[in-house]
Design brief:
Chain lengths: ~200, ~160
C-alpha cells in the first residue's frame, strides 16, 4: 500500500503533504498525556507490521494494521502513522519521502474513521468486541484502497479500473487484517483494557 | 503495574514480528540493470526473494522520450538489444503494480564501452545494497526512535501544561 516515488503528480503530492501536516498537528493536539505510551506501542506495531508477509497462493501480502492503530488512538493515529511511515521510508526504503504525505492520508484517514465508527461496539459483548475489531481492520484497508485509487486517479489514471484492481488485490489483506484486528482487540480488552479508550469490561 | 503490562504487550506484539521477519519478503521494488555484449540485462524484484513477474519496463532517454518497452519474465528478468542512435543516459522504469515503481539509470558512457572489473564490482555492491533485507538491529533502532519521540512529546506536554 506504500506508494513509491515517481508515481504521483506534484499537486497530488503537495495536497497529501498539506493534509498530512494538518492532520498531524491536530493529532498531536489530541494526544492525551497519559496515553503517549500507547501511541508509541501502536506506532511500533504499525512500523513492524509491514515486514510480516502472508503467502496466499502465488501472491504475498503484508499486514498494515492501520485499523487497530486508528481504532485505539483516534486522531492520535495520524502522528503515529506518520512517524512509522517516515521510519519505514528511511530505514526500509518502503514508499518514499516525497510520497509520505499521501501515504499518511491513505492509511491514517480510514484509521481515524474506524475509531469513530467501531469503537462504540467494543466492550458490549465478546462477539461485538471481535466484530468491532474485524470491521475496523477490514474497512480500514477497504477505505485505504479507495483513497489510493483516488490518488492515482488524480494522477491521470482511470479511477474505476484502478479501484477495481486495487480493491481486488487487497481483499485477502482486508480479511486477514479484520481477523488479526478482531483477535488483538479482544485480547487487549482482557489483558490490557487501559489501552482501549472508554474502557468497558467484557461480560 | 502499567509498565509491566506495557512490557507484556511489547513482547506479545513486537517480538513475534521480529521472529517472522526472517521469513518475510521486503516490500520495496527494485530494478537492477547492466550492459553486456551489446545487450541490456535487467533483474526486477520486491526485495531479494520475490521476483517481479510480468511487470512493465519502459526505457526512456533524458528528455523522457520512450525508446523501448518490455515485460519481465517469470524470473523477473528482461533483456533487450541496446537501442541504436541513443545519445543520452537511459532510464529504465519498472512498474510493479499500482503505486509501485522503481528505476535504474544507465549512464551514456556505459552503453558504448565494455565495463571494467571495477564497474562490475561497484554495480554488484549496489545491487546487494538494494536487495538487503532490513536487519533486526535496524528494526530495533526504528522502534527505539518511536519510543524516544514519544518520550520527547511527553516531556514537551508536561512542560507546557
Amino acid at each position: 500500500m506504500h506508494i513509491s516515488e515517481g508515481v504521483l503528480s506534484g499537486p497530488v503530492l503537495a495536497s497529501g503533504a498539506i493534509l498530512a501536516l494538518a492532520g498531524t498537528g491536530l493529532g498531536l493536539k489530541h494526544i492525551d498525556y497519559d496515553r503517549i505510551v500507547h501511541v508509541a506501542i501502536l506506532a511500533a506495531a504499525f512500523f513492524v507490521a509491514s515486514l510480516i508477509h502472508v503467502n496466499i497462493g502465488p501472491a504475498s501480502v503484508h499486514l498494515i494494521l492501520n485499523g487497530i492503530v486508528g481504532l485505539l488512538l483516534g486522531l492520535a493515529a495520524i502522528p503515529a502513522i506518520l512517524t512509522a511511515l517516515l521510519l519505514q521510508a528511511i530505514l526500509f526504503q518502503y514508499g518514499g519521502i516525497t510520497t509520505l504525505g499521501v501515504n499518511v492520508v491513505v492509511m491514517a484517514v480510514p484509521a481515524v474513521l474506524a475509531h469513530y465508527l467501531f469503537l462504540p461496539l467494543i466492550g458490549k459483548s465478546s462477539t461485538l468486541t471481535f466484530l468491532a475489531g474485524f470491521l475496523a481492520g477490514f474497512f480500514s484497508i477497504l477505505f485505504s484502497s479507495i483513497l489510493l485509487a483516488l490518488a492515482l486517479w488524480f494522477t491521470d489514471q482511470n479511477f474505476f479500473e484502478t479501484s477495481l484492481v486495487i480493491i481486488t488485490a487487497y481483499i485477502p489483506v482486508m480479511i486477514i487484517e479484520g481477523i488479526v484486528t478482531g483477535f488483538c482487540v479482544a485480547f487487549l480488552l482482557k489483558v490490557y483494557p487501559e489501552i482501549i479508550p472508554k474502557r468497558k469490561k467484557c461480560k | 503495574m502499567q509498565i509491566k503490562k506495557t512490557l507484556i504487550i511489547v513482547f506479545v506484539v513486537v517480538i513475534p514480528a521480529l521472529i517472522f521477519i526472517n521469513q518475510a519478503f521486503a516490500h520495496k521494488v527494485i530494478i537492477f540493470a547492466w550492459v553486456e555484449d551489446g545487450m541490456i540485462y535487467t533483474e526486477s524484484s520486491f526485495g531479494s526473494k520475490r521476483k517481479a513477474k510480468g511487470c512493465a519496463i519502459t526505457v526512456v532517454d533524458e528528455k523522457g522520450m520512450v525508446i523501448h518497452n518490455g515485460l519481465t519474465d517469470q524470473e523477473g528478468n528482461y533483456s533487450f538489444k541496446i537501442p541504436e542512435n541513443v545519445d543520452s543516459d537511459l532510464v529504465l522504469e519498472l512498474e510493479a503494480g499500482v503505486g509501485h515503481k522503481a528505476q535504474w539509470r544507465i549512464p551514456k558512457q556505459e552503453l558504448d564501452s565494455k565495463p571494467s572489473e571495477q564497474d562490475v564490482s561497484s554495480a554488484m555492491k549496489e545491487k546487494e545494497k538494494l536487495e538487503k533485507e532490513p536487519s533486526v538491529l535496524i528494526i530495533i533502532t526504528g522502534i527505539a526512535i518511536i519510543f524516544l519521540l514519544a518520550l520527547g512529546v511527553r516531556i514537551f506536554k508536561r512542560k507546557t501544561s
